[in-house]
Batch of 3 targets.
Target 1
Amino acid sequence: MTSVVAMNAILEKIASKDKDFRYMATSDLQGELAKDNFRTDGETEKKLCHVILQQLDDISGDISGLAVKCLGLLVHKIADSRIQDIAESLCQRLTSVSGKKAQQRDIASIGLKTVIAEASGSQAQALVTITAPLLVDGLSKPGNMDVLSESLDITGDLLARFGNVMSGYHSQLRVALLPHLEETRPIVRKRAIQCMASLALHLSGEQLDEVNKTLIAQLQQRNIKPDAARTYVQTIGAVSRSVGYRFGKHLPAVIPLVIKFSHNAAEGDDELREHCLQALEAFVQHSSHEARPSVHNVFDTALQFLNYDPNYADTMDEDEAEEDDQMEDDDDLSDEEYSDDEDVSWKVRRAAAKCLQAIIESYPDLLKDIYPKAATALIGRFKEREENVKSDIFQTFIELVKQLGSTMNRFEGSGGSKPIDQLRSDVPSVVKAAVRQLKEKSVRTKQGVFAALQELVTVVPDSIATHTAQMMPGIQAALTDKSQNSSNLKIPALTFLRTALESTDPSVWQKHLPVLSPAVFATVGERYYKVTAQGLRVAERLIFVIRPSTQSQIPGGSSDIVNSLYKSVMSRLMAQDQDQEVKDCAISCMAAAVSQLGDTITPQLPQVLQVLLERLRNEITRLTAVKAFASIAQSPLSLDLSPVLQPLLAELTGFLRKANRVLRQASLSALEVLIAGHGSNIQPGTMKAAVDEVAPLVNDTDLLIAALSLTFCTTLLQRQPQQSALVTDRVLPAAMTLSKSPLLQGSALHSLQIFFQTLVTSKAKSASFEALLAALLAAGHDSQVGKTAQHNIAQCIAVLCTAAGPNQTSNTVKALLSAVQDNDETASRLALFSLGEIGRCTDLSKFKQLQSVLTSSLDSSSEDVKAVASQALGGVAIGNLSTYLPFILRQIQNQAENPKQQYLLLRALNEVITSLTGDATLPERQQDEVLQLLFSSCETEEECRNVVAECLGHLALLYPSKTLPLVQQQSQVHSDHMRTVVVMAMKFTLVDSAHPVDAHLHRLMPSMLNHMQDQDRHVRKAAVQLLSTAAHNKPGLILDHLPSVLPLLYQQTTLNPALVREVDLGPFKHKIDDGLELRKAAFECMDVLLERCKDRINMPEFITHLEQGLRDHYDVKMPCHLLLAKLAAAAPGPVLTSLDRLVGPLEKTLTTRLRGEPVKQEVDRNEDMVRSCLRGIEAVNRIPNVNSCAPFKQFMSRTVLTGAMAAKYNMIKEERAEAEGTESMDMS
């Protein structure tokens, strides 16, 4: 705490007449105020405020500047009443119009701005109470433009920070600001527009409508002056940007009006045209849904003004321009050399380009319609003479191409020409225009060209294959540029070149190697590390151009190129004092050179390997070096690695003990390829050490590591069969333990199967078929092993039998048939699993008792055994369709009166149908039989209907012409169950990749989605789930139908009292909501639509229904909280505008207490809901300017940031930050 004596000493020095003393004392005061522990009493506080305000009037600018800084620090240390005194004094100085005080207006304005910027939320009310009336008074003083201008500036700052606290002054400010929009001084009009935009954000709906109507009415005047038109158009654009979609209701009247002003602007009134285009851009960006009906008019206007250049006539066509370029590069009539300092038409073209970019970003679904015109116009404007505009044109073109790439799948199945195909046809025009721009002198222009070309080859690979000769001079010139800032050009040029080399056939570039390679290798020697790193990456790609395949010969004359490559890369590889990025790139590049060109640099190979080994032993570069050795070991050139093989293996084996997971993965992969390629040269002792380290890694802690470890052991057994005893002794026990893990799946399961297969074929004494089979059976019979683990073990048994041969398979099947009939349920399950897996790959029809055994198992008293028997029956049928499929169909017909049995048999049929491919299909007669059987099974139990729907969906994928007409026909029948099944079946036809069935689905989708208005809730739920699946997998099928479908979807989010029934349970009554699952499915569908079709959603309507969900049942609230979090990130503006309505349901969720004495399950459910709600709140709280919503701000301080809830909220924030950090690490 600052002593009173020290503070008094400082205050005495401040009163000195000596300027230096005053400066030093003010500086000391600033230091004291900056201390966290600064405290003072009330009297000293008063003195401080008085002294600092005095210092603002000091004749020395340095001292008054320090006083302003002190003022900002003082705000945090004093009471609200002192802040009011300071603000009042500063406002009086600000609004003073005469005498000496008029000269102090500037410093008073700076001081007041500082106070406003530094004041905390708790001080806002005290500050606003004093400043707002005085500022309104300043705005109302006529005649003094300086006072008015400063008052507007301060008012803008105050509204931006505390506009939500100024609700009592909104009407006065609105009345005071409107007249200033017609002031003669531009600075006053500009600041009035800024104030109006800040004020509009906080106005109520009625007040905002009044302001907007006033602005529109002013624009609609017949004889409006040009200055006024410019001001009101600019104000409307600023208000639209500020309030977002709340302005949307006025767009039908405003957009035509603004477009009219843009076209009717007087000659030379480019400022009005610019403001009109900027306003149109704001409408499209911030009210995209409301602007959609007029988007084509906006688009045409933007295109028209993209070519607006009244002071310059370019009459030269492209062919003539190209001829002139060839004849004389330095043409005196070049576009770039035209200059007119008074010409501001370039601002209009720049605004048009940005408006066009906003349309492309906001309406990706319209690309099919707008692409042809937009692409033609943008490519034509590559010749733009103003550099600022040209950069925006390149950026707009890049956005156009990027949106095409990201929305390609939207147009699958939509018919007609796809935009991506049109882009391919435009490639020659793009390249021609780009090449011409590469001849310009401007570095910024060339950067834009390379960025555009890079996006082009990213979205349309191999698109420039026939145009490389045209581009080479420009690329070479960029790479050899010697200007002072050449790195700014070389980096984008190298980045593009790397992408182009990766996406284009190597043969295309081979003829350019003599010209291209010296330029690239020169960049490897650059001093700037980013250029060097990019040069090395491009050099690495050039290696595959020199020799695309190790089977081919190096083109004649390329030996000098290879030598230059080796020298330039080797110099970087051996250097120690360079950036980490360069070291990694040099290692990677040299590894590629050795892998592809190693036979041409045989004399230098030992030296290269030694240097790479040194890098492997360096902790900084070891990971990259491990990957490099793995790449070299995989080379088909059979390179001699003997000089480093043993120490290399020792290092890699040691890395398996490291905690770095990525390093262990890379080391295991490298060890595997080294064994595969050089196993015969590895000493047994080295192998034993490696196996000793690998064995502990075979566990379910990290399945990826386990998979790599098993792959290593499999390769070792294949290359060195004599090591089978070692592997069996060390690794087999761990593999058996892994086989019993319920977590085993994916690549780890596949690697385990291959491991067992290799073991049994190795003929090792300790790993015979009988021994392995017995071990697997013993593992499967363990009472602690669940069904998932038994299924995995069964797959391993099937692999063993297939590898051992038909005799061993036959004996095993006989033993398994006996085991099925045992009373031991665990043994029966394992046997049935094994029979099913063996039957998938072997015909078991010769075992006559198999059918009866499986059928009797379907009647087992154990539900688990019956389920496994069903799966086994399907698996066995896959091995011999002609024998077992008719049997399954007969059994389904025979069990029509027994739903439980029919369900199991339908599951078996589903196993068969889902396994069918183009090679294994059903005869037409059998197709008809299966379809008839499935349709006749739609009136059974719900679980049967679900399986029937899946079967029908998969049959539709296999035989769409036969199945889909029947499905459509059945969707119109009176049976509720039948309609539910056929709508559900459509969901299974929506695979996430292109499929021939898509053409049929495009026609069927509208009628199927129309079932959302079906009378039966089950049919409606199936239709909602169909919409959700379609939006996720094939959005192109539903985009055109969303205007009619979304209202039907929103109807399903509303609680329907008719679906709530009351059940009498004796002592009490219980309400059951049959519509709960339907509402939950509807909100989950809204989640998918937000992610995939955001641009087609009316956000206010969407949020209104979300609000209903936040007030609903627990099961509905949970997905709604997640939806709110996603919406806060995807559409922060609409969320912020509607936030006051969302506070109520969120607060109720957090404050609701459980009644009576809740059980643990109820407590846990409530805790999960609270955490879910807090995640949504945390996402909303990250929206910029969220504190402008007073109800939410009060809710946060009152409910969220207090007591135990604050601890939970902080934990949610930490979890989110940790998840984002982990994701970013994984991506890197």
Target 2
Amino acid sequence: MEKTAATEDDNVVFADDSYDVEQNEPRPRLTFVPTERPERTEALQRRQTRAMSMSSISSIRSRVQPASAAAGIPMEFRTLSFQVASSQDVNNSRPIKKPRKISKNKNIFKHVRLGFGVKKDQGKKKDDLKRAQDADHFDKMDAHILDIPNVLKEFNTSDQGLTPEEAAARLARDGKNALPHRRENYFKKLFGYVFGGFCSVLWIGVIIFFICWRPLGDPNPAAYNLGLAILVLIVILLQAAFSAFQDWSTGKTMNAILDLLPADAYVIRNGQTVKIPSTDLVVGDIVKVSIGNKTPADMRLLSTSGDVRFDRSMLTGESDEIEGAVENTDKSFLETRNAALMGTLVTNGSATGVVVLTGGNTCMGRISLAMSGVKEAPTLIQQEITRFITIIVCLTVVLACAILFTWLGWLRKDHYAFINTVAMLNDVMGCVVAFIPEGMPVMVAMVLLLIAKRMKNNNILPKGLSTVETLGCVNVICSDKTGTLTENKMVVTTVAFVDAQFQADAAIELHTTGGAEALNQLHRAAVLCNDASFDPITMDRPVMEREVQGNATDGAVLKFAEFAKADSTRLVYDERPRKYQIPFNSKNKWMLTLHDSNAGGSSEKSGFLLLAKGAPDVLLPKCTKYWSMKENKVLTLDAAAKAEFSKMQERLSRNAERVILLCQRDFHSEEELGTNAFGEDVMEHGLEDLSIIGVFGITDPPRAETASTVAACRRAGARFFMVTGDFKLTAAAIARNVGIFTHPEEPDSYETIANGAAYMNKAGEGHRPGDMLLLDGPSIAKLVDDDWNVVCSYPEIVFARTTPEQKLRIVNELRARDNVVAVTGDGVNDAPALRAADVGIAIAAGSDVALEAADLVLLDKFDSIVEAIRLGRLVFQNLQKGIAYLLSAGSYSEIWPVILNVFFGVPLPLSSFLMIIICVFTDLFLSMALIMEKEEFDLLTLPPRNHKKDHLINFKIYGQAYLFVGTMETISAHAMFFLYMWRAAGIPVHELFFIFEGYSEGFHGYTTEQLTHFNTVGQSVYFVTLVIMQWGNLLSIRNKRMSIFQADPFRKERRNPWLLGGILASFVIAVFVTMEPGIQRIFGTGTVPIEFWLIPLPLALGVLMMDELRKLLVRSFPNGPIAKIAW
């Protein structure tokens, strides 16, 4: 029901409530319609509530643009178009000399929003001003209104085109013809690389180590402190370099995606047609486009082949193609047919036009610019890493403060000779260095890069590496239909009349035998009311194998007609050539053609044969008669006949067939053919008193892999929803065919929810009659917040007749209820939902804006998304393994030496330098081997990760890394340190505790130099013990539950040669660090006796065996206490 608002502008009409995606609440939706044109009002209302899902042609070119499955005009394009139209109406009502001011049009922009509904960080006034400026930008366009000579004069060009010098000057003045991008703040990015994450804490270490060197170290500054400062600085630069490399890799992938877009254009320069990069086009260029080309800029058409058509689905969301024209057909530049907009596909014919707008000034450029300011939300893995960094930094600060306060309150007074100011600062920073796993950021970057490479091998381009892991959390997939779930190949399968129905082959056979006049009439209408044609190059092929120029629906009807009677498409058309037509477009939802009444030609006085083809719900109300197959004559369309037609339409729709209705009548006009008055007469009176001829049931068969893909996604725990613009019964039938609907009974509907039969609260408590739900656009508009609790609980849903606003609302409602949502799309109209989703998935042949809004791009089949989910989960598994490995030695086993030194007076068992070597070098190489691990079991059998509960690092992993493996390594490494001190110096363990400054000249008869030597070698022993024990940890942690005997690193299924490479690399580093004289002199390391290289080997084996015992207990007692706390 509509309600009219009393406003200053009588053209403002409040329609039913829509949804405000920015404020998360219902708001009145505005449509702008001339009230003096009721028929146009009706068309616009239909356009808002439904859409015809059609397909673009298959081009002879290599890059084909599939039709967008979304319905309706996207809000950003539609709003902009309405703003322009309304602004023009207001301006036309004013005195000509009165200056136009945007501020006077506040009523126009008060509730209408240009953009994507996700700019929560921008003020409303700023948004309104930007929208007003966009509308004013196109409002001032008059290139489509001027005649051709004046257009060329205004842009200072001619039909011979620009000279190279003129083009170069304009290119230098206006810039490249490319979509605008958000300007990178390289200083901010560099700052983030160098000071983000752990680096912010490490910089404090650099400063303190420099201060300890000088001035605190004067007059004899220690080279050790300078070396540590430089080493930590190198660590920071290493982390920053890997972060930059990760971003560079992402940018490289983006360039690979943009390379998929058309790069060249044919332009007339100095009278010669040349091919140039489309980015070099300038205003005033004369450009030629033909079938299969994408329009490279906004153009005003100068000439056409007479049959040129443009697919604006990338902008409007509707695959109803627009016929190009030379003369103006609308006051708005965005609606007129003599304008070709950037990014639209030429589906038929050819045209020449003059470029009037380029780059960011084009319609697509304005929409892209509106998106460029949207702040990217952190991905789930970024949130997890940030959480982990926060925990580690907080623990580090607590321990550092504990050391500082202990020194201030106790050690500074009682044991100043043991820990002076420099020593205290070294201990504090040793705590920082010990507790922070410096190698983790590098390991994370390498994991993501590796998985991204694997994805690329599976024909998936991930734009953001951190988004890869989010796929493992996806529990809802919202997929469009046409071209994604289906093959985008239309075929006529059923021929039906009001009182009869035939399979296509049976109808062809009956037509061949003759005697059925209704079939003859339908065949004639199928040929004449058709904009498709056969590609001349393929005419020697069988009919069903020929290439078709035109949209897929017309192509299917054309092939049917030609198959029914050879060469009939040419003969019938020659007998009754087309005199006039109104093409299928977004304003009428039907096409209309006029032909001579009599075969072979006749005078206009005898009238015309009018044929109409379109959606039944649009044309049926215009019909009063029908061709009866049984009676073989025209009968009155009474209530009984209408009921039969409705049953037939429902029957075909339930069989997943798209229903196309063909009608005819004799048309007489007092106006002269070719005049504007004639066209107006056809528009006003043409669709009156129509006779139904018959209908075609057209199917778009599902892809072969669709059913298995849906089943695999469901097995992985992801609910698979369809979001389409098709009629709901057709959508439901296709959903059954591909396995989205899995039950035989009828699905629940809006009435089920509205009547209270289904109810649910946000906690998931409630009741619903079934597991399937079918909603269409009008029903979605009626849903309130409590209703969405019910909707989001259904495991199987089909959303039909949806608009882009509703698609965006669906995504937002699902995400608001803790779902992780993936969305597929290819058009500009899909960009809002793609960006709002946790994972936006675009088709490679999609629009520039969709590719930029998406997170992943599918290069081939849709089933590659299953492998993407698998790899996304593998990312999380390998990250957990890598971090658990790093924490054992690189954090827990390094902090205890500092604690023993500060609180128990033990000579420091491990130096800060060796801590850094473990974190950044020895452990890092081994963790890199872990990231090469294959999946331990079929990860698709696991449910999606709950991103609010199943964290990257949890208490179970801390327990495994710290309390289990970390404790074994810490005790063993300290034991080796004390063993060396006893065997080399004869100092028992108990004498090293609480010795503080007693460990100095004369202790056990040793000099200071000798005691220092014992300590440095002991520290190296501790270091070597950790390095070797980590080998055992590496072999155990690569499997969470499986035994090494089930998944050793040598069998083909789990083979990982990188493990041996990592072990060898860590061994070489350990030898170099402990035996290189230069490092010994600067950083205080010592040569480790051979026996202390051998003793840790059985200790490493012990770590492996202890973890094998843990795994055995978990497998044997899956519900036991060990299993409950195991990671």
Target 3
Amino acid sequence: MGTDPELGNVQISASGQLIRKMNNMQEAGKNKDELDKVGGVEALAKILKVDMQNGLTSEQVVASRKEHGDNEMPEPPMTWFIELFIASFNDPVLMVLIAASIVSLILGLFGPHAESEPYGWIEGAAIMVAVLIVAVVTAGNDYAKELQFRALSKFAQTMESCTVIRDGGTRKVLNPKEMVVGDVLCIKGGDQCFADACLFECDDHSGVSMDEAALTGESELVKKHTPGCTELGNKAADPFLLSSTICATHGNAEDAKAVVIGVGSFSQWGRIAAGLEQEAANTPLQDKLEDMVVLISYVGTASAVLTFLVTMTYIATSDPSSTAWLMGTIDAFILSITIIVVAIPEGLPLAVTISLAYSMKKMALDNNLVKALAACETMGNATNICSDKTGTLTEGRMSLVCGWFADTFVREDQFDSFFFQFKEGTTPKGNEAWKNKPGNPPWLAPMLQNIGINSSGEVVYGFTYFAPPKDKEPVPLPWLKDEKLTSTPIPAEWGEERLKEARTIQVWKDRPDHFNMTELALLSFAHKLDFNTITAKKESDVLVLIPFDSKVKRSSAIIGLGGGMVRVLVKGAPEVLKPFCTHYTDGAGGSKPLSDATWETLSGAQDEMANGQKRVICLAHKDVGVATLPRSPKDMSDEELDAVCTAGLCIDAYVGIIDPLRRDVPNSVAIAQKAGVKVRMVTGDNLKTATAIADKAGIFKTGDIAMEGPEFRKLTPAQLDEMLPRLTVLARSAPEDKFLLVTRLNGKNLPKDKASWEEGHPGHSYEAERDLLLPGYKEEWDLKHPGGGDVVGVTGDGTNDAPALKAADVGLAMNSGTSVAKEASDIVVLDDNFSSIVTAIKWGRCVYDNIRKFLQFQLTVNVVALLLVFVGALIGLEDPPLNAVQMLWVNLIMDTMGALALGTEQPTEELLGRPPYRRDAMLVSIPMWRNILCQSFFQLVVLLLLVTLGAGWFGIEQGNTCAEFDSEPLDAKKSHWDWDVKGKYVGGGGGLVGCETFTSGVLADGSSAPSKLDCSSDLSSSCYRDGYAKFDEDKHHESFEAICLKCEEEDFTHYTIIFNAFVWCQIFNEFNARSIGDDMNVFRGLHKNPIFAAVIVITVGLQIFIVEVGGLFTKTSPLNVTQWLVSAAIGLVALPVGLLMRLIPATEDPASFASPPE
């Protein structure tokens, strides 16, 4: 055993050390040398004890996992809560507030008034505690956000899959984390490689092209070949497939095979991932909100500065002492900084995060796995959806239902009876056995050979489960269904995990499954005729297999027939294969030349099938002598193979495959169109089939344009712009057509200069042709689209769809698609259903509106709080109506609590009744401004009335006063002859009244004090309170009360009522904020949002606690029942005010919307 210092000195076995030596990062040459030292990949397989044809057994899988580890990728380092807590103090505003609170705390403990105000330190301490609470909440929110991000990443990983060979050659589809060292990995174009592996079988001529950009950053594809490849001459082969890379192409073989040599932390990606830090980028809405945060912060800062200046002016005019100057300045400074804290709406980005994270989880339940946060909000304002047909608009269960066979057109109603005559009762054992069955016509053999051999993948009819550690196996043929196993329950001893997956040992799917719908239709048709497609492929001499290529729209295979003959099998689009066909197969199985009359018959059959919404596939073959070929098919170049497969073909059949339109698609399309979203269908079907399906779906309407890809590509940018409003169907499209369409719609990825244009159009003149070739160029596009382009969502499932998915504002990959498509997408549509895309639009609009609800709520709080404190300073209140701690609590209410309450509102169908907003639309609409201003006016008027008249209404002392003084004067031993008999402060000992007047009733000149100043006969608290507490009539900052009297109990009742009424106004206005328009019922759908109700309950509970228990920390006094009820009643008035304000006419600016509904 050895250790690996890179991974914390983990113990590694001898074989583990060996494979580590040949898996050095970025050193392919050195790795190849190490592989050669052990004797090549075959010798490596022996060391790992793996049979490269049959794969590992279940027991070997368990042993390998124990020895080499599992394929769980290490998570990036977690930012712990304490780190986030410390980081939250980096906010400069909080730093200033902390500094001010420390100064206040020190002065309260050791300042000149420390003896007269023994609790003076409490305000500084309370502000410090409030800041700590803000820091804890901020850190908690950031920590929760990171946990949510990791949870979503893990959920996305559960949707990934790979194919390995195990247990005697069985292909198994696994989650990548189940892979182990020694597994035989099967990989083909579009697949992601989830572990490091060594290639041992592939198309030696073409090799395997891997995209290693995710690992190395290099954009060029890297060619991989088997170690013993002879096609490379003197160039050394690179057989190493690296984790996290993507297979772009795998040549002309069915797939490529490799032995896994590195998993999890020991893989190359695992070693990189262990040191990565994840940081989610801002979404567009977050960026827009941060701009608004800056603007609001400026307003708040200006308000704070004005408040500070007004307060300081008041202090200056009071002729205070130096101590009063210092204390007054600190208090004013703390208040001003607190105003800034309250004004800065840091809750806006938090609200976005909460709403997006909540929506992402909910969208996953609605079959939308969101990979990028921005996709949630962007989908809400999508103006165009460019949708695939198969599996998205249709059910994705294609069936072969009609066709032209051996000069006979068999329509749908005759199809079953026509083919039933060829079905025998006995199950065939292989290709040759089936072919020799009596009753089978000779023309059927090459057609079924084409279907079975010229194909990829297998149909999955169900699964058979086994006792752990052996895994489940797919059932690839319908006659392998075992009625006994389908009724036998899973034994309890197989474990809970197995019982969660299935109830019986064999489970039959509701319908057969395959990653390609066309292949599914053809293969299941062959199975209905008892043709064993699996043994047909195994027992045939397959020389070349060329998978389907969307660019040429065909796939091909060449098999050996013996006797010096080979058979070329080709299937693809009829219009593509037509130029290559010269003969057709007749009823006797012979080959006849194609006459004009036959072509006319074939064209008529094709049109009839296409008009009936069928996809038409041509199946053709030809038999060729090996001697007539330039060389063996295995040794031919791509060009030579292409020449062989595109000449002299014999048509065996035109088959019609139908994929029924999903039942809910017409309604979903209508909903999207009503929501102002243009739905376009982009498909590989011919124009007639595509138009028929689009018409039935409601996409193609009278006056709309439908065209095919070749015609589309010839358009100039100006011509396409003119057609775009009516172009709804793009048929026979290549993947680049979808990319061109998307780019022209949204303006992304357009060439920005001459160099980039010429790079995309090699051989063309920028000066002469820039206005003639698609997609155009940025300068020209910007001039035609001053308001920005469309917001485009694009669906895709193939590797070649990746550029269009990336170019779109939101890329929507089908769950049945390739790893490349999913990697390029922003959302994975788990059920491949168009209605799920409409649901994504609804959730996107919900996120957008939730943020605006929160913004409406927060701006109201901001306006009222800032104006209330400013007006309080302006009218000369000794204490602000809301103190620093109270304002920090209000800040907590409107930030975290408000974000939770309003950021988790559920979507409603009404959201799809309006058009999408433009990219540059203002977040705050006219109706929102109406609501903000009306509520702010109501609250401000009520609160200012409470400030000025409230004490009289409730029969309490005005402002914050002392409820109980000490029975002994605080400073009776010192004279402090600093006041005249009217209470005016003169200072310097030049007055007649001093502290001694308390007990003696004598003035400085020896004369008797007025009776109202004489407590010599009654040294009681009531005398001080009633007489001397009101002595300083001018309310100067060096007051008699502060120097001479010691307060035993503070009375904050007046300002507590104001504070309480203010908070209750916000609580009830939170209900008003649920409607940003004219909806009178602000309680609609409240039962669907338990989080909102919980936030309200928690807020009320905390408010009661703060008022009743806060005391000197929050400067609140307990209120009686009447005061509580009146405070709550004042807040409740916000609801009828909300009803009345919505009667004021206010409509959104039509220019805010991107497009009217159809």
